[in-house]
Design goal:
Elements (H helix, E strand, L loop, with lengths): L3 E5 L7 H12 L4 E6 L12 H15 L3 H17 L7 H14 L2 H20 L2 E2 L2 H4 L10 H12 L5 E4 L2 E3 L5 E3 L5 H11 L4 E6 L20 E3 H9 L10 H6 L4 E5 L8 E4 L13 E14 L9 H11 L4 E3 L6 E7 L5 H15 L3 E14 L9 H11 L6 E4 L5 E7 L3 H14 L4
Helix pairs in contact: 2-3, 2-5, 4-5, 7-8, 11-12, 13-14
The chain binds aspartic acid.
């Protein structure tokens, strides 16, 4: 029998009306037995997500010693939800206890996690399902890394024989028994962890869009929907800013070849996007699958004659960055040149100066240049490796659109071509590439 783990995002959990849709979705398919939920998100534009209300609670607690004002908003949200759902459930004691624990723990991560906790308590009531607290089954080690083996075993044991169970997403527990959260949007990761632990046949990720689009709809009007993606393509696109799914959420399911399907709670009949291991991936015939971009990188360009014969050159450059604890995103290189691309949020001006000085000392380059405010645009697709002339088409399209390319990096897997352009050219760059590969039916 198939087993589906379903994760519902913040907009699916936003109020009683949307939670009723979730219930319908779960009840329409007996294979949908395990549910992972986010905290209630925005109900309308301008609304505040419960997680953000909770971060406010923590700030108030730090300033005033309690979080009465901010927690009143959280309380109202959940009381409203229970009322809309007509549930025979008095949530007040749970809310009182949550407020008390927030004030006792005085931990930002604990406070932030309560949106998922409360949402899961309500959802379990609504579905008549077992509530399994992530605090009891999702473990982090001393260094803060997710402890997979122990967690998978605990999740499987807790879910055993439960016909239907609900888990809160976003958090787990440290060896000291403190609640710890994943990064923002981390319930996607929790969903993947539960899917892996239970050996799901599919991980359904329910959100408010019908899957991935070939590029950002704010840049190109109504871009094409992507029906199928490989894990690798997904990783490239989501790392580069296509933010339907948290970029870390692939890892647990990828190892077990569990497909992910992105579905729309508000249009459940839509196919959505399937994300599959390469062995199950059916090439769409398209050269390019998708295009995504991200702004604010710094490129350090280094040139030195005979760099290629100087043993340890690249290592010396990278050691400098390691010493300054800056992670390197890309290293495009030529025979006598290399560039190091770093995310500018990891580096301030002073640090950059020091890094440049240290690189000069370490490798004595002939020439060095720094380009700031660079956007990276990734054009991704398995189809690119087997089709001649893809980069020629891409660069011609950019030249025709008047986009100045500052850097090129073609990944060794031939899965993507990354170009660096000025921040302000990113949108123009993406639409030119889209037009070339999707706009005229030649993709
Ligand atoms: N509620 C958390 C956030 O807003 C986690 C999640 O929704 O995945 O980031």
């Amino acid at each position: 029998m198939a087993l589906k783990v379903c994760k519902f995002g913040g907009t699916s959990m936003a109020d009683g009306h949307t939670m009723t849709k979730v219930k319908k979705i779960i009840e329409s398919d007996p294979d949908r037995r395990f549910v992972v939920v986010s905290a209630p998100g925005k109900r309308f534009s301008g609304d505040t997500k419960v997680t953000d209300l909770l971060y406010k609670c923590h700030a108030e607690l730090m300033d005033h010693g309690d979080c009465k004002l901010a927690f009143a908003d959280v309380r109202r949200r959940f009381e409203g939800i229970v009322k809309e759902l007509n549930l025979d459930f008095d949530i007040s004691p749970v809310l009182d206890d949550t407020e008390r624990r927030i004030e006792e723990e005085r931990s930002e991560e604990f406070t932030a996690s309560r949106g998922e906790y409360l949402a899961a308590v309500v959802m379990a009531r609504l579905l008549g399902a077992k509530f399994i607290d992530a605090e009891d089954v999702v473990f982090f080690d001393e260094s803060g890394a997710f402890e997979s083996k122990r967690s998978y075993a605990a999740i499987a044991a807790a879910a055993e024989e439960a016909p239907l169970a609900v888990f809160p997403g976003f958090y787990g527990v440290t060896p000291e028994g403190r609640v710890k959260t994943f990064s923002r949007g981390g319930s996607d990761i929790s969903g993947a962890i539960v899917a892996r632990a239970l050996g799901a046949t599919v991980y359904e990720n329910w959100t408010d869009v019908s899957g991935f689009l070939a590029c950002d709809p704010r840049i190109v009007e109504s871009p094409r929907r992507i029906k199928m993606l490989s894990y690798k393509e997904l990783r490239e696109l989501s790392y580069m800013g296509a933010n339907v799914l948290h970029s870390e959420s692939i890892f647990p399911v990828r190892k077990a070849n569990i497909p992910i399907v992105i579905k729309n709670t508000f249009r459940p009949e839509d196919d959505g996007t399937s994300i599959l291991p390469i062995a199950q991936y059916v090439p769409s015939g398209n050269i390019v699958t998708g295009i995504a971009g991200k702004k604010n990188f710094i490129v350090i360009f280094i040139e030195k004659s005979h760099m290629n014969t100087e043993v340890g050159f690249v290592r010396k450059v990278l050691s400098v960055l390691e010493r300054f604890e800056v992670s390197v995103e890309h290293i495009p290189s030529g025979i006598d040149t290399m560039s190091v691309v770093v995310d500018s949020s990891h580096i301030d001006n002073f640090k950059l100066e020091q890094i440049l000085e240290s690189i000069k000392e370490a490798v004595e380059p002939d020439f060095m240049r720094v380009s700031e405010n660079i956007a990276l645009v990734a054009t991704v697709g398995h189809g690119m490796s087997s089709s001649v002339g893809t980069s020629a088409r891409l660069f011609k399209a950019l030249a025709d659109a008047g986009v100045n390319v500052k850097m090129i990096d073609q990944g060794s897997s031939e899965l993507n071509i990354i170009v660096g352009v000025k921040n302000e050219d990113m949108e123009k760059c993406i639409s030119a590439i889209y037009r070339e590969f999707f706009g005229n039916g030649r993709n």
